[in-house]
Description:
alpha+beta; 3-stranded antiparallel sheet; 33% helix
Amino acid sequence: MGVLHMNKIWLLLVVLVAISSVFAENTCTDTDGGDDIFTAGSVSGLFDDVPYEHFDVCAVSADYLNEWSCRQTDTGMVALATTFPCEFGCENGACWEYEIPEFGLVAASIALAGAVAGFFFLRKR
């Protein structure tokens, strides 16, 4: 093969790669199935042939969640972040589903239960 022929082959390969990237479709996969604010998840895929991965995260104030999900566009699936308020707080990339009682209230309840149980136990002796 001559040098001119090899140059034509390389040029053809470059053109084919360029054309394939123009028609490459963006991809996105969501581990928690969409806008599920009570489940920590992530999205990953390809955007313009560049791999990415984003994780659901709580905002600095822990009252909001930045939730990643996939959306269909004319260029394929893409990752988009939406900020949701968390009524009872946010931790480890998910909103709490219900209010977590204060530790003092839990400790007081346990102490009261122990005192009542101890009273009945000692009373039988």
